[in-house]
Amino acid sequence: METTRIYSATKSLFLLLVALVMAFTFDSCATKTKFANSPVVPGAEGVVSVKQDKNDNYLISINITNLADPSRLQPARNTYVVWMEGADNETKNIGQIKSSSAFMSKSMKGSFETVSTIKPKKIFITAENDAGIQYPDNMDIVLTTNYLKD
For the chain, is the Cβ count within 10 Å smaller at the N or the C terminus? Predict the structure, then answer.
């Protein structure tokens, strides 16, 4: 009876260890990069995570804190647009930041997630009047990464 209990505990510990190793392995495949400090919105901070999936697509996730409402910028804008510079050196609009203020919090947060078939070299965000534009109208870059690691 005692041997069965020890065997069961050892097996559980082994399975937990295997699960932790796998979690760290999968998480380490993602490239995480911080945005550079912004002269346009100095308090804004953010992280970009790029992870390649099993279909050779790239999952791009962005999380930002202390992001000012675009209507408070000078000049005022309507939205924040996320741009990607790909391996082909083309700049593409990949979407718009969803922003919100948490309950009982003054800090505005923003997030974004998309999938791309092209590997991003650089990610940057501008404040724009129209989320559907094809090229940045306003070259006052709110946040930008350096070139992402390979």
Answer: N
Q: What is the distance between the alpha carbons of residues 127 and 143, in angstroms, rounded to a whole number?
A: 10
User: How far apart, in whole angstroms, are the C-alpha atoms of residue 22 and residue 16?
Assistant: 10
Instruction: Provide block-wise average pLDDT over 10 residues at a time, the chain (150 residues).
Output: 64 63 56 89 93 94 92 91 91 89 66 94 94 85 83
Report how many domains make up the chain: 1
Contact 95, 124 (CB under 8 A): no
Residues of the domain holding 115? 31-144
Query: Which segments of 27-78 are extended strands (E)?
Result: 31-34, 45-52, 58-65
- What global pTM score does this model have? 0.75
CA–CA distances in Å: residue 76 to residues 5, 55, 101, 118, 138: 67, 40, 19, 32, 11
